[in-house]
Write a structure and sequence with these properties.
Blueprint (H helix, E strand, L loop, with lengths): L2 H25 L2 E4 L2 E4 L7 E4 L3 H9 L7 H23 L7 E4 L2 H12 L1
Parallel strand pairs: 3-4
Antiparallel strand pairs: 1-2
């Protein structure tokens, strides 16, 4: 798979994931605890980019099942690096670092976690 194809597919996958999460958050905007109903979630600006979807990422993005070959693992790592680079670019373009966050699993994101922690 060429990098151009990977970038295009990854962008389409990210757009669909964002659309699903937006639709879901609109439906679930209140929560009830005991006899109190309150707005759900954090009420300040925060930009968190979750990309820790190990199973769904490899199945839906790449169509792979079963044990991964080393080159497949490398492709997933590279795709996750594209996502992380987009987050870093957002911060470089003005998103406050204090409001930006990532959620990535160690299996495919150990290098990203090390870099983010530096």
């Amino acid at each position: 798979m060429r990098n151009d194809d990977l970038d295009t597919e990854l962008l389409a996958w990210l757009r669909e994931a964002y659309a699903r999460s937006t639709r879901k958050s609109r439906r679930l905007n209140l929560t009830t605890v005991g006899d109190r109903t309150m707005p759900r979630g954090y009420n300040r600006s925060q930009y968190t980019l979750p990309f820790d979807h190990r199973g769904s990422f490899r199945r839906k993005m790449f169509g792979w099942t079963g044990a991964l070959k080393p080159e497949q693992t490398a492709q997933i790592n590279a795709a996750k690096k594209v996502i992380y680079d987009a987050l870093k670019a957002s911060v470089a373009r003005g998103v406050l670092k204090q409001k930006a966050g990532i959620l990535v699993g160690e299996q495919f994101g150990a290098d990203i976690l090390r870099d983010a922690g530096a």
